Structure formats: structure tokens, C-alpha cells
Model the fold of this input.
Amino acid sequence: MSRSVLTIDGLQYSNWSREIFEQMREGGVDAVHATLVYHENCRETLLRFGEWQRRFEAYGDLIMPVRDPEDIELARASGRVGVFFGAQNCSPIEDDIDLVAIMRRLGLMIMQLTYNNQSLLACGCYESEDSGITRFGRQAIREMNRVGMLIDMSHSAERSTLEAVELSERPVIISHANPASFHPAKRNKSDRVLKAIAESGGLLGFSVYPFHLKNGPDCTLDDFCGMVADAAELMGMDHIGLGTDLCQGQPESVLTWMRNGRWSKSMDYGEGNAGNAGWPQPLSWFRDNRDFPAIIEGLKQKGFGQDDIEKIMGRNWLQQLINGTRPMAASAA
Done:
């Protein structure tokens, strides 16, 4: 497998195993943003860190932790996959602003302000009324900026996302979603939001989760790459990447945990209808981590040049991590 194109996947929550890590190497993946938690509280988040520590010990020949962006190049040079962590909700910090810095020191590089529902920080994309960023949310954004934790609005509603961009002094990202103009899923983002993300210096990671794509599992590679081309025209080539949202090998119980957490006794269908109740059928051209080369080939067929392909496949993600995950210099007294 050629190692010529740095490849960073901006979001996965797979059922991690040696087989999956080997597939990542086969597919040319150099680093992955691994979801650490969905609805876990602080203590449970610490347990998830512990689980990953055991993985690093057991599979040290295949994976390594990313504590600084430069570690991605070290992982690549050593033939391993670098793993950096994110939270898909703000639950790890509970209601304590001090936990932002603590979680960052432990290795949490990215945090979503919401996961579909209203949180203590902002409003999720499935609520009927978007109340925007809360008082606590304003403080959390300031603290995330200070300690170098990327703000992710993938599951947030429109007003909340736009307010987060306005309030943040650093780029805001959407790690895994697609343009609503391509497919009008509640999770996908309007052109207004995408322009604001780009203007903040942030990034959109394109999802291959079929419920986020036109024609679902029947979405073609050509259509996907056409969506990428349209987004590049709207946002600029420096503000797009991949965030596959791959959940490889996960049981149905994990999907229930994602959607329900502890807040509901009845199944929340996520995209708003029972037709999306279970895991979708995979795309024919992206079944698992071995298929990243298909995206490279699809982008070539769509007319993207080598430099732009390298930005989309990983260089833009690397730049986001460099720009957004270092602590801000303290202001002079």
C-alpha cells in the first residue's frame, strides 16, 4: 500500500480490535479521531481512557496515542495509526468548568457541545426550539479556547452553531456531517453554517454514514465526490476533510446507547423516522477502513489535483489540530 497520501479520519466509533487496526493500516489510515464517549459522565470517561490505555499496550505495534499534532507524523513514520480522542457530548465535564482543562490534559482534544439534545452548553439538532449557547456554554467555549480543545458542532442546531462560531476565538469544526443541500438530514448543515465554519478557519469532515447521504446506501462514489467538489467551491479547499462516522462491527446495543443514552425509555430514531431504526447497509465503495483508497481514486476521477487530494485526505485535519489544540498564550497582566 502506498504511503504517499497522509490520511486522517475525522471521526470513528468502531468496535476496536486488532483486525480493525490492521484494516486501518491496509487502507492507509495514519490517524483517527476516535470517539471516547457519548453520554458518559466524568468517572465513566476516565474508564474509557483506561480502556484505551490497555489497547495501546496490547496493540502497540499497530497504534499509538496522539498527545500533540506532531505525533501523527511519528505514527506515520513508524507504520502505526495515531489515535486522538474526542467526546460527542459535553457530559465528561458535567457542570464543572475546571473539568475542561483536566480532560484536555488527559488527552481529550475535541468536544462537541451537544449530542442531538439540549445540553448544559447549547442546543442539539433534534430540538424543536434552538435556544442557542447557554451561559455555561459561553464560559466553556472560552475555556476550551484557552486550553486548546477543539469545539465540534456536528450534532448541534443552527443558531447554536452560529453563536459558537461568533463566540469562539479559535476555529470551530464539524467533524462529521454533510451539506444539507446534498441531503436534507437533520444532522447535515446549511450553506450559512458551512460558510461560517470556513470563515472561522474551521473544517467540515464529510461523512459516509448512509443516512447522511443522498440515496442512502445507494449513494455512488461519483455523487459523494461531487458533493465534496461543491463544498470546496462554497467553503474553500482548506476547510474540508473526512469524518466518515464509521461504526464498524458495533452491535445494535451501541446504536441504542448513542441515540437514547439514559434520557429515554423508548427508542429515539435519530433522523426522525422509524425507517432509520437500525444500522444502515454499508456503501458498496466504502465498507470498512480498507476502502479509503477508493475515495482517493474518486477524487482523482472528479478532477481534483494531488495537492487538493492531500488536503482533503488529511493535511487539513492536521492543520486544524496544529492550530486548535495548543494552549493559548496567557495575556500580559
In short: The chain has eleven helices and nine strands. The CA atoms of residues 281 and 292 lie 18 Å apart.
